[in-house]
Amino acid sequence: MFLPPKVRACAFVLIAFNYELSRATVLPVSGSLTGPMAGLIRLQWWRDVIAEPARGIQARHDVAVAVAGLLRQERVAAEALLSLVDARETELYRVPDQAAWRQMMLGGSGMVQRMVAGLLGEADEAVLATVARSGAAFAVGALLRHLPGVLRSGRMPLPVEVLRAVGLESDAEPGDLFGPGRLESVSSWLRQEGLALLPGRLESQSRTSRLAMLPGVLAARDLRRGTAVAGEVSRGIGDRLAVAIAGLRRR
Question: Which SUPFAM superfamilies match (predicted)?
Fold first, then answer.
């Protein structure tokens, strides 16, 4: 809400688009039985919309129409939107290792914030990369907060290496992570990875990057509280005030 109105409208479209893609990773039945096909079909539909924006308009899908508008106005690049699709596809195929997992975070929520910075006029590659790390850290913090619900939905946004580290096979069901001590171990790992992604200094001389990195304020609070936030869905007044104060300072 601290973004300029025109940029804010575009950011809402990107957030909605990212949410629609996340729904593709929620499989109707056990992924071990059906494989990722259902999700891949939904992701391919979005790829088609990106390739031919008229498809989204013809489908009368609110988010697809809005995405088509951004593409036609050249507010965002098709390659950036496809990065978000690729990130979700990585999750559907089970993330093979930690390097692929980090890239998934940077290419997903990290890319959302990178596009926001681009909409604000930021063009410096080093700054954009830092903004992407802030967005990725925010996603890790959000995953830490919502981990039980995410797993219950049937999603498995964790690398196979982590599953094996807690004594599970690579094709384990998400519900298997509710075994004794496993959620705690995974939450601890998420915290470490999120802190590694979080830029060491969130302040910047660039007004555009300061605004684009506001989600990093929440990321820092979530990750520094660690496993205590796991399962916390709603945010308290402290989080809201922290973002409000940072937003007013960075305008």
Answer: Terpenoid synthases
Nearest to 94 by CA among 138, 31, 140, 48: 31
**For tokens 């903004």, what's the residue?**
131
> Over the stretch 154-191, which tens digit does the pLDDT of each residue have?
899 999 999 999 999 998 999 999 999 999 999 999 99
- Residue 156 CA to residue 154 CA, distance in Å, equals 7
Q: What are the distances in angstroms from CA 88 to CA 82, 127, 132, 140, 183?
A: 10, 25, 16, 14, 22
What gap in Å lies between CA 201 and CA 132, rounded to an integer?
A: 14
Per-residue model confidence (pLDDT) at position 230: 64
DSSP assigned state of 177:
G
- Each domain of the chain, given as residue ranges in start order, spans 78-250
Taking only the tens place, the pLDDT of each residue in 43-81 is 999 999 999 999 888 988 999 999 999 999 999 999 999
Which homologous superfamily is 78-250 in?
Farnesyl Diphosphate Synthase (1.10.600.10)
| Residue 98 to residues 32, 157, 195, 214, 216, Cα–Cα distance (Å) | 21, 11, 14, 26, 21
Nearest Cα neighbor of 41 from 6, 73, 88, 107 is 88
